[in-house]
Amino acid sequence: MKEDKIDAFIIPTADPHISEYPAACWKDREWISGFTGSSGTVVITADKAGLWTDSRYFLQADEQLKNSGIDLYKMRTAGFPTIAEFLLDVLKNGQTVGLNGLTYSIADAKSLAQALSSKGIKLDSDKYFIDRLWTERPALPDGMAFEMPTELSGKDTVEKLTEIKEALHKANADCTVLSSLDEVAWTFNFRGTDVLYNPVVVSYAFISDKETVLFVNPKKLPDELSDRLTKDDVIIADYAMLTAYLKRLAAGTRVFLDCNRTNVAIGNAVKHCTIIDGISPANHLKSVKNETEINGFHNAVLKDGIALAKFFFWLEKSMANGDKVTELSSSDKLTTFRAEQPLYIMNSFETISSYGAHGAIVHYEPTPETDVELKPDNLYLNDSGGQYLDGTTDITRTIALCTNPTAQMKDDYTRVLKGTIDLAKCKFPAGARGCMVDAFARKALWEGGINFTHGTGHGIGHCLNVHEGPQSIRMEENPTILKEGMVISDEPALYRTGQYGIRTENMILVKKDCETEWGQFLSFETLTLCYIDTKLIDMSLMSPDELRWLNSYHQMVYNKLSPHLNEEERAWLKDKTKEI
Fold first, then answer.
1. Are the beta carbons of 457 and 551 closer than 8 angstroms?
2. Average of pLDDT values for 254-273?
């Protein structure tokens, strides 16, 4: 920093595509801090260092930052400054903050520069020297891409490109750059293994009426895929050539960019153009699943449900036999059951296999150092998912390992379950946003003076990122409306630090419900197929409607899964899904 005349340096959790899960070669923040959570930013000054992360990772960060010299700053928590506030406090007029423009979004850099300018502090987005220090940095991913056939995607690339161009015309734009890896993969109907858990390929795309260019390492494309893209009038260029290509655009070209998901280096390459900022057309289009994709989700949750039934049966039987089962061994066993299913590619995220107090760490990931044995005296929370070629899954179940759960466990569990059910049951007018239905999932918790601070629901990709936008269900305002065909998670939760965590998560599909004199109404269809532990339910808190929903759901789970289980597993599932 001294050599580069930098007084503070910012290291976000991002790659050049502003991905949630960067490939190993771009995990600068994890390398310098030791913190492994999926969200966080490190700021370093001459005599201080801090990590900013959200409530999902407070406990994890507190443990992983011990003796690192890096202080934890809790985002959106009273008493902790934002990154901008921190920098304004510790830096002097005329000093400089540096960051790597390849891994910082245009919107975030602009906001930070404006805040710092109030004190005459400069932001230099062209500073990067981690390469000098991280001498064993992994290489760029070199895995091969593979075809996503139209029989599974529902639309071919030509049709998708036509829809994107139509959206650009409506926005009065000449062209767009797709930076997000899932948008590129969706648009060009391919998948890959470049990023752990996300079946994407490191690539960019430029789309205009004149030409479509895919920027990717050509060696990553099999001949059949390369030939198909060429037939679709897609020009294939080297991954590293994007900014040079953009700098040659004619002055005044109207470029549509999602400035929240596009890096500063790309923004600088088109500074001679007119930028139209908005949510990427590809992001909007892929969030609404077509009939083929919806059928694929139904297939994926069936396979996932089979794997989960076999897993929970195995877990209960193993513990009853006195076998040693740990967080890690149970996680591995679930992956084995998923891998037995047709079209399985990989897990959709690191399995959160958490026993007792570990369940209160929202995104806990067991490691050999933290792994503990599951014992019959507390709760077990398992949040997991699979990537199948025909769909992506995300599910959380909390079960009682203890014979007699405490009154508090049952009260907590039932309030969370009521939230899952009440959101699944709700009906709402077309045009509603996620924040407008969020309270359905929180009402029972709020009545007990309880809340959870993460979102209630996120979009889920079709054999793509398990966390997908632009839609969400959360307390904070998101202008994206909920549309028929969107797949979203439904996951209210409760965490008692040092005791346990509870989360019951299903995937839900937005569908048309009814049309009245007040217009079109929408509702949700629950997709996930897995039993819910009724041993933890406090019946006095459940309404008749909620019990009807649960019994109907359990009947569906049994009917769909039982034909795929052996006799012993069927009898076990019959008992788990019996009417209450």
1. no
2. 96
